[in-house]
Amino acid sequence: MSLGWSQSFINFETYLRLEKSLSGNSIEAYLNDIHKLEKFFASTGKDVSPVEVTYADLKEFLVWFGSGNQKTRTQARVLSGIRAFFRFLLIEGEITDNPASLIELPKTGLKLPEVLSVEEIDRIIEVIDLSKPEGHRNKAIIETLYSCGLRVSELVSLRITDIHYGEGFVLVTGKGDKQRLVPVSDKALKEIDIYRNDRNRLPVVYDQNILFLNRRGRRLTRAMIFTMIKELAAKAGIRKKISPHTFRHSFATHMIEAGADLRAVQEMLGHESILTTEIYTHIDRSFLRDTLIMFHPRS
Asked: Given 139, 248, 249, 254, which residue is catalytic?
């Protein structure tokens, strides 16, 4: 009896959670990709189990999925999830040939992330109203995001016991609960200390060890950080489309522009593959080209 879709979903989810140590959000994204493939077979009336899928079936799926005017990047992401699924079936011995191995990812082009200049980051910090109860907290958040290049999920989960003042490091828990030590600037540590004095005056603290809290003493959400940054950027007159992740991009770009080793930046960002980090070298090259055009006597 061939493996059905329901059982294959359960097996794949277990594999992603236990063996790949992926986060809940990543697992959900992978499973959604496979559900799209199952939906395709249901819509076409084909009674095909996961182990019976062929290369031709996947080509038909891509035509079907692409007909919905999906963005190239979305198509690439879905196909990436499907390829991971069939690699898993191959590893488990459920199939002997991977039907997705010859499917090429659509060309998405290089999309460089938005980056803030140091001057723009300073402007955002300058417009923070320190007379408000959340003022010093927000300043500490911006300094920490930029100093350590954290993901927003890592920032909201940061604990007081993760901060090692003597060594100048913070212990960051990243994707898949993988931990890494990241250097933190003296400026960020100073702002964290000032904020902690305000934190101690909260009437009730529900999350004693979580560093950044809202006025009700609970941990901040990703949405709260996003809203705060969006409002500060508008107040500072910055027209770029920015998010908490922009500070992470800016951190990496500024480090590489200053000559930091790519492997060191990879370690600090918590990238599993150095290929992910290499996108910032493209930003650096465009920076170097602009510099050449501006200052070279033959330009």
From this structure: 248
- Whole-model pTM: value is 0.61
Contacts of 190 (CB under 8 A, 6+ apart): none
Q: Residue count of the chain, please give it.
A: 299
If you search the block for the tokens 């030590």, which residue do you land on?
Answer: 181
Residue 248 is a catalytic residue? yes
Task: Tell me, yes or no, if 219 is annotated catalytic.
Answer: no
Sheet of strand 169-173: strand arrangement: 163-164, 169-173, 179-183
Question: How far, CA to CA in Å, does 93 sit from each of 12, 85, 88?
Answer: 13, 13, 9
The whole-angstrom separation of Cα 247 and Cα 148 is: 9
If you average pLDDT over every residue of the chain, what do you get? 85
Asked if 148 and 270 touch (Cβ cutoff 8 Å), the reply is: no
Q: Is 206 a catalytic residue?
A: no
Q: Kindly list the structural domains of the chain, giving each domain's residue range(s) and its CATH number in brackets, ordered by start.
A: 5-91 (1.10.150.130), 118-294 (1.10.443.10)
| Spatial separation of the C-alpha atoms in residues 113 and 111, rounded to whole Å | 6
pLDDT on residue 112: 60
Catalytic residue among 17, 36, 159, 175: 175
Residue type, 176: G
